[in-house]
Amino acid sequence: MWRRMERFAGPVMVVELMAVVMAMMAPSASAFNLDAEKALVKEGPQGSLFGLSVAMHQKLENKGFASVFLAGAPRSKADTKQTSHNTGALFSCPFTPDPSDCERVNFDISEFVDRESKEDEWMGVSVASQRAGGMVITCAHRYENRAYVGQPDQEQRHLVGRCFLLTDLLVPADELFYSSFCKNRDIRPDGFGMCQQGTAAGFVPDSDYIYYGAPGTYNWKGIVRVEQWNKTLAKDAIYLDPQETGDEKKMNQELIPLAFHSYLGYSLDGSRGVTNRVNVSFLAGAPRANHTGAALLLKASGQAVLIPELLITGQQLGSGFGYDVALADLNGDRWMEVLVSAPNYFSRRDEAGGAVYVYRNRQGNVVLEKPTVLTGPPYSAFGTAVARAGDLNQDGFQDIAIGAPFAGSGKVYIYHGGKGGIATEPAQVISGQELKPPITQFGFSLSGDMDVDDNTYPDLLVGSMSDKIAVLRSRPIVRVTHNITVSPELLDASEKNCGSYTCIKVSLCFTYVAKPASYSPRLVLNFTVEAEVERRRLGMAPRVSFVRGAREAEVQRGTVVLNGQSSPKCSGDVVLQINENIRDKLRPIVVVAQYGIQETRAARRGNRQEPGDVATLDSRPVLDPTQLTREKLEVNFLKEGCGSDGKCHSNLQLRPYFCSEVKEGDCTLLPTDETGAQVLSLRSQKDVTLGMDISNEPSNPARPDLDGHDAHDAHLSILIPSAITYTGFRNADRAVSCTPLNDSATECELGNPFNKGQRTKLFILLGTLLITTETTEFAVELRLSTASDQQTLQPIVARLLVRVEIQLSITGLVKPSQVTFGGRVQGESAMNAEEDVGSLVEYTFAVSNLGKPLLADNEDGTVLVSVSVPSSTESGKWLLYLMSVHTALGAQPPVPCQPAGVAVNELNLLQSSLGGARRRRRGAEEEREGGGGRKTALVIGGGKKPSATFDCVTSRCLNLLCPLDGLTGAGTVTLRTRVWNSTFLEDYIKYENMELFVTAGIIFRAKNPNVKMPDVTPIRVRLTLDPDGTVTPAAPVPWWVIALSVAAGVFVLLLLVVLLWKCGFFKRPSPYAHMPKYQAVRIRKEERQRGVPRPDRPAPRRGPRARRWVTTWSDRYANC
């Protein structure tokens, strides 16, 4: 990662379609048509990082276009005319075999130290070409713009970077010589002071657009700038307005949908056909966005702003998603697929290091779901470079190249495009160790999709960090058509067709085509013919031998020379002689023929036109790896049991059906629906049986000679769909044997021959483990074949409808299963924390899918768990207080469930993760309190106590419904509850054997009509409750305690009476004691006032009256 990190600091011939043939058809991952053996290696100055960036270019000269290879060397020494020491440079390498003829491109040799610094500016950090006859751009992203030089307190340095535009002849353009758009803008770090223009730069193919990346702008948020440069308009000094993310005129960083330190513009590519056929779109990488990386798709607005169209985010932290990007049409629909690399991606499970994500483009819509992910070996930095490679194999689809510079000595992976998109396996892997001389850290930079040697095949330029680059040229591809035959068609061992022997003749004919049509070299093919290789390997006696020309009895070698395209040529007959007195005439004679291109002397030494010219690759074509180069032929013996004309006309017939199990040579048929189609209701069974009745009887019993003859070499090919697997076969006659060829094909030998009038039953056992809930039916294709004559044989398709019944089960667990209550009664208002309520009780309900797994994202339906919890008594007192509800899927962390209409933690009590441990600790502290606390013991009298049951019949219940979203295999629902201690102390202290039941069940809301769930019986989980040690049962009171208590009471009563008597409590008081008292004075009679009565006063009343007071008399003059 140096490049970027340093910037920031038939009867006769049977073609065997088996594994061997399929392997021959598969492309080789080690070598195809990019020639590593004849690679051109160019070397640059040591330690200059020559090859950090590369580009293929073609200059327009008098004789036409001349190919050159451009390589950036950002640590190269400065030009002698410059005062700086290390500025970096751009080198141009001609198309020659000389590895040391690269020259420095001189275009920036001046230096003004009072306003700039080119020291370590990294010239050549990026380079791009506009292809044949076009412009070249190269950049120095660490170029410094200076101010106040020589004034230590005021000197300023700004890493603005700049780019240079060169003509096709690699000289400075007359106009727009260089671009440094950050230079005269806001110089602060959160502006353009650390712009670093040119970290990425290039041209949009077939357009006038030039793009730059400046990832240091806006506090390393980064921007992308696009300019249009038209040669015709440039001559008249007319330039179109540039466009930027954030708006070139407003410079508003808020228009960029990324955070600071995202490094937008770190990598760039542009093309038409991304979101619009005509308009140009740009793909920019931001490898540090959101710590995972991102890629931003932009479109040109025609104004001053680039408009974001699509943001693609990385999937792994620190993977560097967006380190490099590319646009390529991989499936030939003229819409560009999006490729984003993440070289720091790592997967221990897949043993992968580095990844490239390929996003499909469906008519202008980039599909983000399920991208194709290509990965490399661990620690390889796979994806450091991604480039369009052109159509390397000339199949009409674009191919791509991916660099992995730390995979050993460095490797380049070639992936072919196709109608279905990108291939997931590399067509070719080129290692730097293969080259001469070897190159380390090979694949750090790439440039492709250009033909440098005029053979119409695109070539590839590969850079490295070891100061070397390599040009890998494409070898022409030829497609050979062959026709290999044997005669006679059926071998009659009694017929002497070769003198006194019976012989077999093998004929091989070839022709080839290639691109272009003008390419028509003389082609030499080597071929080998082998006889009965497998028989010899098993130690069995051979039945044939080659007549002449073979040094080995079992192998014949030869050559065929093809003089040009479409010029067929055949070899001489290869003759095999049947040995005398052979006994095995049942098994066919197997002949294997294969061929390949012979490398000529000219190809080995590399023919050259003139001294100093590069050797052409016209004499080194390669075979198309998708074609068959090996063929297996079987020659059968003519056998008895045929018609009077010596020909065998068989009448093989097959009737398929499906059944459940095989017993005593027969099986139980599966049921049918209303249309008569058989239906498999998939529950827990693992197998289904395909039964077949096979017969070979005359079609017209009245004329048995017409057909129904022996079916020689009778075979049955069974093509099995991917939803089911072959597990075995059963055959009562034991005359049939079946062998699986691969996961999707099984071959059965019915007999050699399958006799006239023969009937048999064959049962194929099929596994259903791979059937998913998406499977609605599967079809098995059956193909009968025989060496006998039967033109009416056609494939038979056996279809079976599938109905999936998911097997869901639920189990419950309560922890603990028995709890106690005791202590003090506490009111609801006094509850603050959950520990105040009572003992913690946790319920866990586990749902398991014992059948077929459901599809993720609830595509089949939603599984819900219903739980009924007795939460309160009929009078409204709490029983179980619900604290929380959580659901979990498999090993995933639990997530809260909020059932509709149910209040969880209704009193908002403070929750504690310590649970019951905290309550137990609090109880222990209360026991240790002594006199300071109050300890209460409740004593219950003897006798049998009543019992109580709490469920949804005797109590009020909370009905919960929690979905297990995304359930595929197993999930759980967990309830945290608290026993309401106070209710049981107040109302149930005299009870025993109290049981509380929580009920749970499963509900399945199906979306897929193919998926059903049988009824699942709800479960009841029991919790037992008992009083704890503070509730002490009462024993009978002894009689002496009662007597002593009575005597003590009588004594206290008597003592109290005496005390009251002494205090006069029992003495009745006189009524005079409660009368008022007055003090009076006696007056002598002579001293009393005499006179007439006053008229205003009534006359005194005469007669006695009761006095209401007591008068105490005293004599006034008693002491006188």
Automatic annotation (TrEMBL):
<dbReference type="GO" id="GO:0098609">
    <property type="term" value="P:cell-cell adhesion"/>
</dbReference>
<dbReference type="GO" id="GO:0007229">
    <property type="term" value="P:integrin-mediated signaling pathway"/>
</dbReference>
<dbReference type="InterPro" id="IPR018184">
    <property type="entry name" value="Integrin_alpha_C_CS"/>
</dbReference>
<feature type="domain" description="Integrin alpha third immunoglobulin-like">
    <location>
        <begin position="808"/>
        <end position="1011"/>
    </location>
</feature>
<feature type="transmembrane region" description="Helical">
    <location>
        <begin position="1039"/>
        <end position="1061"/>
    </location>
</feature>
<feature type="region of interest" description="Disordered">
    <location>
        <begin position="1086"/>
        <end position="1105"/>
    </location>
</feature>
<dbReference type="GO" id="GO:0050900">
    <property type="term" value="P:leukocyte migration"/>
</dbReference>
<dbReference type="GO" id="GO:0033627">
    <property type="term" value="P:cell adhesion mediated by integrin"/>
</dbReference>
<feature type="repeat" description="FG-GAP">
    <location>
        <begin position="307"/>
        <end position="364"/>
    </location>
</feature>
<keyword id="KW-0732">Signal</keyword>
<dbReference type="GO" id="GO:0007160">
    <property type="term" value="P:cell-matrix adhesion"/>
</dbReference>
<dbReference type="Pfam" id="PF08441">
    <property type="entry name" value="Integrin_A_Ig_1"/>
</dbReference>
<feature type="compositionally biased region" description="Basic and acidic residues">
    <location>
        <begin position="1086"/>
        <end position="1099"/>
    </location>
</feature>
<keyword id="KW-0812">Transmembrane</keyword>
<feature type="repeat" description="FG-GAP">
    <location>
        <begin position="365"/>
        <end position="424"/>
    </location>
</feature>
<feature type="signal peptide">
    <location>
        <begin position="1"/>
        <end position="31"/>
    </location>
</feature>
<keyword id="KW-0675">Receptor</keyword>
<feature type="repeat" description="FG-GAP">
    <location>
        <begin position="428"/>
        <end position="489"/>
    </location>
</feature>
<dbReference type="InterPro" id="IPR013519">
    <property type="entry name" value="Int_alpha_beta-p"/>
</dbReference>
<feature type="compositionally biased region" description="Basic and acidic residues">
    <location>
        <begin position="923"/>
        <end position="932"/>
    </location>
</feature>
<dbReference type="InterPro" id="IPR013517">
    <property type="entry name" value="FG-GAP"/>
</dbReference>
<keyword id="KW-0130">Cell adhesion</keyword>
<dbReference type="Pfam" id="PF01839">
    <property type="entry name" value="FG-GAP"/>
</dbReference>
<dbReference type="GO" id="GO:0008305">
    <property type="term" value="C:integrin complex"/>
</dbReference>
<feature type="domain" description="Integrin alpha second immunoglobulin-like">
    <location>
        <begin position="642"/>
        <end position="800"/>
    </location>
</feature>
<dbReference type="GO" id="GO:0009897">
    <property type="term" value="C:external side of plasma membrane"/>
</dbReference>
<dbReference type="InterPro" id="IPR032695">
    <property type="entry name" value="Integrin_dom_sf"/>
</dbReference>
<dbReference type="InterPro" id="IPR048286">
    <property type="entry name" value="Integrin_alpha_Ig-like_3"/>
</dbReference>
<keyword id="KW-0472">Membrane</keyword>
<feature type="domain" description="Integrin alpha first immunoglubulin-like">
    <location>
        <begin position="474"/>
        <end position="640"/>
    </location>
</feature>
<protein>
    <submittedName>
        <fullName>LOW QUALITY PROTEIN: integrin alpha-6-like</fullName>
    </submittedName>
</protein>
<feature type="region of interest" description="Disordered">
    <location>
        <begin position="914"/>
        <end position="936"/>
    </location>
</feature>
<dbReference type="Pfam" id="PF20806">
    <property type="entry name" value="Integrin_A_Ig_3"/>
</dbReference>
<dbReference type="GO" id="GO:0005178">
    <property type="term" value="F:integrin binding"/>
</dbReference>
<keyword id="KW-0325">Glycoprotein</keyword>
<dbReference type="InterPro" id="IPR048285">
    <property type="entry name" value="Integrin_alpha_Ig-like_2"/>
</dbReference>
<dbReference type="Pfam" id="PF20805">
    <property type="entry name" value="Integrin_A_Ig_2"/>
</dbReference>
<feature type="repeat" description="FG-GAP">
    <location>
        <begin position="36"/>
        <end position="102"/>
    </location>
</feature>
<dbReference type="InterPro" id="IPR000413">
    <property type="entry name" value="Integrin_alpha"/>
</dbReference>
<comment type="similarity">
    <text>Belongs to the integrin alpha chain family.</text>
</comment>
<keyword id="KW-0401">Integrin</keyword>
<keyword id="KW-0677">Repeat</keyword>
